[in-house]
Write a structure and sequence with these properties.
By secondary structure, the protein is of the alpha+beta class. It has two domains: 1-66, Winged helix-like DNA-binding domain superfamily/Winged helix DNA-binding domain (Arc Repressor Mutant, subunit A, Orthogonal Bundle), CATH 1.10.10.10; 77-147, 2-Layer Sandwich (Alpha-Beta Plaits). Helices cover 34% and strands 17% of the residues. It contains five helices and four strands. Helix 1 (16-28) packs across helix 2 and helix 2 crosses helix 3. The longest helix is centred in the first third of the chain and has 13 residues, at 16-28. The protein starts with 15 loop residues before the first helix and ends in a 14-residue tail after the last strand.
């Protein structure tokens, strides 16, 4: 069985063990054990732990974050701002948007228009107005702002064995 690595100079390629581990972590990283993952991918728990360390070191696994229901936590407004910035400034403006209080997520898009998606959490329309003004002050041309009611996600199916 391959360990997922080639020689030092080539690009790392995920094998079935890596993909199975990633799928299990996406489904429920908090509650799945190395033993359970090992059983599902056919290796030992120590191999699973070593693979996870390797995937983290390579930047394939970049973190573990809780999924928060902001409304139940007392933050009634979850808003998606769709903005335009010049392609040359997109990366810098995305980083700056993360500095705005209330902003939790920023996506850079390759398109020339609608190329920055900024997700923010607010408790009131006053908070929302402050976030909007702060983003505009950072030279983001806001094309729309949409209130998010529900977000659904699932593990990437290509990792499932």
């Amino acid at each position: 069985m391959s360990d997922g690595t080639d020689d030092e100079d080539s690009e790392y390629r995920l094998d079935d063990v890596d993909r199975g581990i990633l799928f299990a972590l996406q489904r429920d990283a908090r509650n799945v054990t190395a033993q359970e993952m090992a059983e599902s991918v056919g290796v030992s728990p120590s191999t699973v732990r070593n693979r996870i360390d390797n995937l983290e070191e390579r930047g394939i696994i970049q973190g573990y974050q809780p999924v928060i229901n902001y409304e139940d936590a007392g933050f009634q407004l979850r808003v998606l701002f769709v903005a335009t910035v010049s392609p040359e400034e997109r990366h810098r403006r995305a980083k700056e948007a993360l500095e705005v209080p209330g902003v939790i997520d920023v996506l850079e898009m390759l398109t020339s228009q609608r190329n920055l998606y900024v997700e923010a959490i607010a408790t009131s329309t006053r908070d929302l107005a402050a976030i909007t003004n702060d983003l505009s002050d950072r030279n983001l041309e806001i094309l729309s702002s949409e209130i998010i009611t529900t977000h659904y996600s699932q593990p990437f199916g290509e990792f499932e064995l």
